[in-house]
Each structure stands twice: as structure tokens, then as C-alpha cells.
Known about the structure:
By secondary structure, the protein is mainly beta. It is built from no helices and four strands. The chain has a four-stranded antiparallel β-sheet, with no helix packed on it. The protein is elongated. This is Large ribosomal subunit protein bL33. It comes from Tigheibacillus halophilus. One of its GO terms (cellular component) is ribosome. Belongs to the bacterial ribosomal protein bL33 family. InterPro entries: Ribosomal_bL33, Ribosomal_bL33_sf, Ribosomal_zn-bd.
Amino acid sequence: MGKKITLACTVCQSRNYTANKNTASESERLEVKKYCKTCGKHTLHRETK
């Protein structure tokens, strides 16, 4: 089991999703295109600190 991370929308900065990440094999930040309820469209979501 990896570390629990939070994904934030790059447009409105709302934190919508959580995910698990394997920190041993992945060192850079996760970027996924997901649906944002606040914006009402698909936007890029990045891992937050």
C-alpha cells in the first residue's frame, strides 16, 4: 500500500480527489485529467503537498 495523496484542480484549485501512490517507484508529482464538479468540465488535476 502506498501513500495517500490529494489531487487538486489546476484551474480552480479545489481539492476533489484522493489517490494512493507508490512512493518507492514514483518520485515526481502525479497529474491526471479528471472531472471537476466546481468547474463543470474535465481539467488537469495535480498532486498537492
